[in-house]
Amino acid sequence: MTIQNDALAHLAKLAKIETTEAEEDLLCTEVSNIIALVDQLKKIDTTDIAPLAHPLELYQPLREDSQSGDSQSGDSQTEIFNSIAPLMEGNVYLVPPVLEVDE
Q1: Helix (H, G, I), strand (E, B) or coil at 51
Q2: Contact predicate 94/87, CB 8 Å
Q3: Is residue 81 one of the residues assigned to a domain?
Q4: Is the dihedral of CA 11, 13, 15, 20 positive or negative?
Q5: Which of 2, 32, 72, 80 is packed most tightly, with the most Cβ within 10 A?
Q6: How many separate domains does the chain show?
Q7: What are the pLDDT digits (tens) for 3-28?
Q8: How many CB atoms lie within 10 A of CB 54?
């Protein structure tokens, strides 16, 4: 399936994308190639293939459960992080604002 310039112009209008005439021919070719690739993928028989959540079989090791009194390593890490923090107020790290608001 190939896409024509008028169909591409309609899609560009819906997506609110401005294209020049020089870009339209290239975009038509690229979109047609993508559609052809999807058509090839549709032809693949996947009836005996189980869907995957992830392409790699990964194992997530879990930490051992411990009582709350045994959390010495967590407390020492917190102390290390707090000691190198540039600004703190209580148990909160103070950071510069990320978003600027125009008033």
Answers
A1: coil
A2: yes
A3: no
A4: positive
A5: 32
A6: 1
A7: 788 888 888 889 999 988 888 888 88
A8: 6
Taking the C-alpha atoms of residue 37 and residue 42, their distance in angstroms, rounded to an integer, is 9
Q: Hey, what are 39's tokens?
A: 């058509």
Q: Are 58 and 34 in contact (CB under 8 A)?
A: no
Where in the sequence is the domain holding 15, given as residue range(s)?
Answer: 5-42
pLDDT at 73: 57
> Which residues, 6+ apart, have CB-to-CB distance to 19 below 8 Å?
8, 9, 12, 27
Asked whether residue 14 is assigned to any structural domain, the reply reads: yes
Cβ burial of 8 (10 Å; 0-12, 13-18, 19+) is buried
Three-state SS for 52? coil
| Residue 95 belongs to a domain | no
Q: What type of residue is 31? A: V
Note whether residue 30 is domain-resident. Answer: yes
Are the C-beta atoms of 65 and 71 separated by less than 8 Å? no
Contact assessment for residue 35 and residue 1, using Cβ atoms and an 8 Å cutoff: yes
Instruction: Give the tokens for residue 57.
Output: 């079989």
